[in-house]
Amino acid sequence: MAYSFLLQDSYNARKNFAASHSILDDANAAIWLPSLYNETGDLKRLKRTLSVGEFSDNNSSSNNNNNDSIPRNNSMSSLSSIPRLQFRDHIWTYTQRYLAAEAVEEAAAAIIGGENGVGGVALEEGNGDGMKLVQQLISCAEAVACRDKSHASLLLSELRANALVFGSSFQRVASCFVQGLADRLALVQPLGAVGYISPKTNIMDIASEKKEEALRLVYEICPHIQFGHFVANSSILEAFEGESSVHVVDLGMTLGLPNGHQWRSLIQSLAERASPPACLRITAVGLCIDKFRAIGDELETYALGLGLNLEFSIVQSNLETLKPEDIKVLPREVLVVNSILQLHCVVKESRGALNSVLQIIHELSPKVLVLVEQDSSHNGPFFLGRFMESLHYYSAIFDSLDAMLPKYDTKRAKVEQFYFAEEIKNIVSCEGPARVERHERVDQWRRRMSRAGFQPMPLKMLAQGKQWLNSVNACEGYTVVEEKGCLVLGWKSRPIVAASCWKC
């Protein structure tokens, strides 16, 4: 049975538009309108007759493109009476659908492909209602992408009634995407206008008390961050073996988590060695100075109690403004760099910001760079593709929360609404510099790191990873696998977080 993922009236509207605009039927232009359906309504794969590079789906850049970038031929002379702006907007609208069609189809197929629902994520309230909610979400995302405010507003009203914050796991994740779609709809301008209204706030503003609490709960409940700490500390301990002067540079200080959980574990392991290092230095890089000072004071006291000499310092800088001279490296000390869920925030369209950060790290010549990132493609150039990928990814996370916590658990609601919902809204509603949740797959990180001059250090610790997963009593359904030298934490075969190590 084929499921319709785009509303039938949307499909009919496209057919009518194509029929009324002969330019789209011109053989030389060879433009195929994107549809996931044939005449009988069955799901089908589309062929491409134009290269993806000929068009851009970015809201800001596509509107500023010169009109000459769109191929034209003699058949266009009959359209001289149509305003250029109106024609461009029509082309932009349907090009969005065209370029995202394959991504939508693949993600939709993944959602309906499993016996139990979304890639192993159950649609608890019955497949009929669950699939209807998926259909509404994708249709609404398409309407928002095409700046069809009236249609999108109608669908949002229906979604708000069906996507319940305390409903099934998929209803709960859908409620977060509804918030993101509503925010994006409020920011885009109608057809004919140029540009994109920037949001007033972004996810990297100083965290509220609620978000700080949600972060602590994520650390306690979900194994994602703890997994990163485990892999990082195991790699750092190996790098520090037999060394007397060691130095850790922590980018972001693990999101400002209180108590310095990661470094308490490292300090204890170093202190228990037969020949502990004479000096351990930890440098925190970030803007949360007060938090870092409190963490540093606690760690120094903790290390002193174990007989270890710890020097804690702070570099008040975000990653984009970091300079090599900000990091003080002493002669003959072994340096490692620790990045837990940080570098994706400096991945921009131009790639310059990330390249700059990686160049600075490379100049420091660390013995090891530990990189832990979300393993999902939330930085694609096309909105609909990003939407579908993030829907699949966060559906798996919300399913894991459903397996761990009761439906009306307060902690669960805080984690969902004040942590993961903030990530979802940033991915869905923001563009340009405001969009900082630019998660990428581990293969893309391999390419980026190699271009920056880093060499992979394969992690051969699959057995230890599985033992760790058992030791933390993670919910059944979590998995640890080794993939091309990386260690990946997943939920029911869906990758969630990937850890890798690099050397200069």
From TrEMBL:
Region (Disordered): 54-75
Record carries keyword Metal-binding: no
Name this polypeptide is given: DELLA protein RGL1
Annotated TM spans: none
Chain segments carrying region Leucine repeat II (LRII): 294-326
Sequence motif: VHIID, positions: 246-250
Region feature SAW, mapped onto this chain: 429-503
Native organism: Buddleja alternifolia
Keywords, comma-separated and alphabetical: Transcription, Transcription regulation
Pfam families, per the entry: GRAS
Domain of life of the organism encoding this protein: Eukaryota
PFYRE: region residues: 335-426
Biased composition (Low complexity): 56-75
Signal sequence region: none
Entry's family note: Belongs to the GRAS family.
